[in-house]
Every structure is written in C-alpha cells, then in structure tokens.
Amino acid sequence: MSPVIGVVILVGIVAILAATIGVFALGFSEQQPTQAPQVAIVADYSERTTGNGEYLNLSFSSGETVYRDTLTVVVSGAKSSDGSDVTLASDPIRAQASTRITSGTQITIHRGQFTGIGSGEHLDLGDATLWLVWNPVDEPASETYVIYRWPDPSQRN
After folding, report:
1. Which residues constitute the domain of residue 145?
2. What is the C-alpha separation between 99 and 94, in angstroms, rounded?
3. Spacing of C-alpha 130 from chain mean position
4. Could you give the number of structural domains in the chain?
5. What are the tens digits of pLDDT across the range 94-151?
6. Tens-digit pLDDT profile for residues 24-45
7. Whole-model pTM?
8. What value, to the nearest 5°, has the Cα angle with vertex 32 and ends 27 and 37?
9. C-alpha closest to that of 134 among 67, 61, 59, 56
10. Which residue windows are transmembrane per the record (predicted)?
C-alpha cells in the first residue's frame, strides 16, 4: 500500500469520526420539548343569580403535582348581570392554593375576584371561558401551555 492511499484512508476515517461526534454533540444538546403536567380537574358551575351570583369550583381530582407559581387563571367573556364586561383582578390560585397543588386542591372563581361588578349586580359566567395556563419554571415566559379549559368546547351550546 502506498503512503498516499494510507493518508487518504486516514483523512476519511478522521472525517467520519468528526461528523459522528458532531451529530452526537449537537443532537443531544438540544432540549427535549417540555411536557405539560397531566391533571384531571372537575368543574362545578353554579348558575345562581342571588347573592354574589355565579361561581365555578375547580377541584383537582388526580394527576401530577403542579406548583402554584407556575399556574395562571385567565378568564374572558365574564360579565356583570347588567351585561357589562368584568375583569379578573385577583389571582384565585395564589389566594386559595398551597405551594404544591395536588389531588384534593379546590379553587373557587367568584364575584369577589372581579372588577367592574356594580353594587346589587352579580357575576355572570354563562358566556365565559376559563383557561388554566402552565408556565414551566425553566422556560421563557413565551412558552406556556393550557392544561385545562372550561367549559369544554364540545359542551358549549
């Protein structure tokens, strides 16, 4: 075997090794997609029009432990009984849940958490949509996941 052929084979082996190492180094350094926690939530919706009006109880019935600081409640379409839009002003999760949310945790969405409800008016959630949004601690704020939606779109009239 001539020295030229030996050098060509050696260069080929080095190129293949470098490519293999590059694929492993770059391929394994990429982060795997974050998996949102799996939780089962039971909603109990009251349509009462007396007192403070309608409310929604969310009961975590099973699933993974979720940390309170990673969850946000978003509500749209909530109204006062006079038809005016209202805004969720306080965070029901931070006010009602412990640091670790597990099976048995219950959160209530009610009139006292909204602004824009006049005296003598009550909360109307009939056309509202609620999302429970999870933002993983190790992800940028733009990486959020809806882990629960009420009502289920298939059940909306």
Report:
1. 39-150
2. 8
3. 11
4. 2
5. 999 999 999 999 999 999 999 999 988 999 999 999 999 999 887 666 688 999 999 9
6. 666 655 566 678 999 999 999 9
7. 0.74
8. 170
9. 67
10. 6-28
Q: Are 27 and 45 in the same domain?
A: no
- Domain co-membership, 58 together with 85: yes
75 within a domain of the structure (yes/no): yes
- The residue assigned the tokens 């699933």 is 63
CA–CA separation, 114 and 88 (whole Å): 4
Q: Which amino acid is at 76?
A: S
Cα distances from 27 to residues 3, 22, 23, 34, 51, in angstroms, run 36, 8, 6, 16, 59
Contact 84, 116 (CB under 8 A): yes
Is there a contact between 136 and 143 (Cβ–Cβ < 8 Å)? yes
Measuring CA to CA, which residue among 44, 59, 41, 71 is closest to residue 125?
A: 44
